[in-house]
């Protein structure tokens, strides 16, 4: 101890540790406040953090803003009468029948549980068909690998959309039929922006349904969160997505 210049251990410790003689110095140790000060400071600190209620309010505002943005890109029209729907639905049933008989090209028909998809004009790879997963990996099939758009689609559907100025003449080069069984759906997705020109136009037949935006899916078993926006879709209605 003598060799270090100190004869008393207390003097050495005093030189090594922050001490209270200089409360404004950079090495000051924090002084523990009395109990009542701790309680008051706790309340002040906790008041600076958002409460559960405030967080819920903020989340609700964000979801409302997201729903507003989604709505701004949607247009709906009721164009097809019950009689026109019935005529088109009979044609769709014929497509299903022809597919079951194997009368279409291989890539025209895509089957999944509770949902069959029929590509006409153009078809593309997606989902489990992709060699590399992720947005932007979808690819068109080579020309001629799916069947041409049936004439009845031009005559009964596309022509009416053009007449009502939903789309311009010559806009459509691909028509897809999604045939859902009871309980069937398709998970949240964005139609590939490098393949699809906007707007994307869908026409609903056979029954009323809904489009849900902002859902999060979990699988095995399948579960889904509440949507940010629930959009009712009536039989015979046209939905334009920009």
From TrEMBL:
<dbReference type="GO" id="GO:0032259">
    <property type="term" value="P:methylation"/>
</dbReference>
<protein>
    <recommendedName>
        <fullName>RNA demethylase ALKBH5</fullName>
        <ecNumber>1.14.11.53</ecNumber>
    </recommendedName>
</protein>
<comment type="similarity">
    <text>Belongs to the alkB family.</text>
</comment>
<keyword id="KW-0223">Dioxygenase</keyword>
<keyword id="KW-0539">Nucleus</keyword>
<dbReference type="GO" id="GO:0046872">
    <property type="term" value="F:metal ion binding"/>
</dbReference>
<dbReference type="GO" id="GO:0006397">
    <property type="term" value="P:mRNA processing"/>
</dbReference>
<dbReference type="GO" id="GO:0016607">
    <property type="term" value="C:nuclear speck"/>
</dbReference>
<dbReference type="GO" id="GO:0008168">
    <property type="term" value="F:methyltransferase activity"/>
</dbReference>
<feature type="region of interest" description="Disordered">
    <location>
        <begin position="1"/>
        <end position="69"/>
    </location>
</feature>
<dbReference type="InterPro" id="IPR032860">
    <property type="entry name" value="ALKBH5"/>
</dbReference>
<keyword id="KW-0408">Iron</keyword>
<keyword id="KW-1015">Disulfide bond</keyword>
<keyword id="KW-0560">Oxidoreductase</keyword>
<feature type="compositionally biased region" description="Basic and acidic residues">
    <location>
        <begin position="21"/>
        <end position="30"/>
    </location>
</feature>
<dbReference type="GO" id="GO:0006406">
    <property type="term" value="P:mRNA export from nucleus"/>
</dbReference>
<keyword id="KW-0808">Transferase</keyword>
<dbReference type="GO" id="GO:1990931">
    <property type="term" value="F:mRNA N6-methyladenosine dioxygenase activity"/>
</dbReference>
<dbReference type="InterPro" id="IPR037151">
    <property type="entry name" value="AlkB-like_sf"/>
</dbReference>
<keyword id="KW-0479">Metal-binding</keyword>
<keyword id="KW-0489">Methyltransferase</keyword>
